[in-house]
Amino acid sequence: MAEPILQLKGVKSGYAGRLVLQGADFVAGKGELTAVIGPNGHGKSTLLKTISGIVRVSEGEISLKGKRLDTLRPDQVVAEGVIHVPQGDLLFPGMTIYENLMMGAYLTREAGSVAERLERVFTLLPKLKDRRNQVAGTLSGGERRMCGIGRGLMAGGELLMLDEPSLGLAPIVIDQIYEVIFDLRHAGLSILLVEENAERIMDQADSIHLLDNGRFAWTGKGAELMARPEIVEAYLGA
Predict the structure, then answer these.
(1) What topology is assigned to 1-81+158-170+189-238 in CATH?
(2) pLDDT 10s digit of each residue in the chain, 238 long?
(3) I want to staple 70 with a disulfide (CB 3.0 to 4.6 A). Which of 62, 149, 159, 181 is the partner?
């Protein structure tokens, strides 16, 4: 495994006094694609929200490159380099694509850096450049997903967290989204990916982590997972 970029030690978190993460231990490698799989309702989205500070840690530690994150506000977590693209994208529907992208760079003060990031996003996602003045509320599901990823990249972070990027999309659009994700991985960006469809990341993920009832129950590579049919059948419904 590569040098760790993100570490969780005994992390517990949840909502209104109900624990969802129940002592999660986890490591993601720098420059790697780290995938988290598991059934619905077992804490995958809560994991990302806890890392990004939206859900507070009640016990345990989260660190990025050795620096504690669990005591920080969400905006401070972003400033440290953690970018969270949530499930459903949560774009500003009345704003244009360009305006949504620029919201991703709200913590960046250097105009040159913002311009460079925007050019990178438009190179990676040329459809966004062609439609930069289109209102986000009129976009298709795939276009919204691309805009959400682009907005995340505008923050210039070191760790990109994606929550179910294939959710609700047609297969051909999913292929396009994952082509972008794999390009980012090959360019050296550290990616933490939550995905219900394990087949999508089986051959590409550097490590796969199975989250079950708020704890990580298994870790390995895609080939190792396929060699464990009892895990695939029990947790992934295949």
Answers:
(1) Rossmann fold (3.40.50)
(2) 679 999 999 999 999 889 999 999 999 999 999 999 988 878 999 999 999 999 999 999 999 999 999 999 999 999 999 999 998 878 999 999 999 999 999 887 777 789 999 999 999 999 999 999 999 999 999 999 999 999 999 999 999 999 999 888 899 999 999 999 999 999 999 999 998 777 888 889 999 999 998 999 999 998 898 888 887 776 666 5
(3) 62
Distances from the Cα of 157 to the Cα of 107, 132, 135, 185, 192, angstroms: 11, 22, 26, 13, 12
C-alpha of 237 from chain center: 23
pTM value is: 0.92
Distance separating alpha carbons of residues 98 and 132, to the nearest angstrom:
5
Of 78, 69, 28, 1, nearest to 193 by C-alpha is 28
Cβ within 8 Å of residue 229, ≥6 positions away: none
